[in-house]
Amino acid sequence: MTDIHKLAAVLDEAARTARAVPQPEQDYDVATAYRVQEELLRLRLDRGDRLAGVKLGFTSEGKRRQMGVHDVIFGRVPESSAVPDGSYADISAYIHPRIEPEVVYLVGRRIETVADALAPGAVVAAAPGIEIIDSRYENFRFSLPDVIADNTSAAGYVVGPWRPYDPALWNLGVLLEIDGRVVQAGSTGAILGDPRRAVVEAARLAVQAGVVIEPGWILLAGAATPAEPLPAGAHVRVEAQHLGSVSFTAG
Ligand code: OOG
To answer: Which residue intervals define the domain Fumarylacetoacetase-like C-terminal in the entry (predicted)?
Structure first.
């Protein structure tokens, strides 16, 4: 039997000290992994953190292929991991950080059921985003339950300017640049074949995990391209067609 509290404590400590830990030896299922994630989050909230929203992972084929996994996953985004647009992220806080171009949605109503995700006003705004992921496992290697337990490698996020949500704008070109050089190019259409599905998928996984998605929360829809390592000192910028750009520097 997996000790949920013990695994959560090990992962929490790994994140706080920026020191990688070995993959758990025991096998456990996805439902148990989400309970570890919940406990991991409780430890953070007990220290005064708050939830900024939720995220999806492995929504694009490029990411699933890169990491050798087959399923979409759901994680929580703590407010303390925010990196303001145009500012610095302290790279010493991470183990082996990677960056991903994202679309971010602003949730406009309480989402308790999958049907709520389809109701008008479920999403009210969209922004270009960057996610910093940082697996707490050695060598960034994990099974699907391992990465779910580790809160889907969530480590930081940057949100660009919001625009009112326009469902007609869904298949948008995105560029990920490091120091002015394009390192990944893709399309938001790579996110679940249509990023508008992200809110429905998030609702499905949230309902399963017993989480209610609150108005005012953000939803990171998942990377549109494979992730790139984040070098120290790098200036990172994401440009999304129609949505604009967002950036930060790894200090
Ligand atoms: C898990 C997180 C994946 C995405 O957008 O696909 C993710 C990982 O690759 O470590 O956030």
So the answer is: 78-247
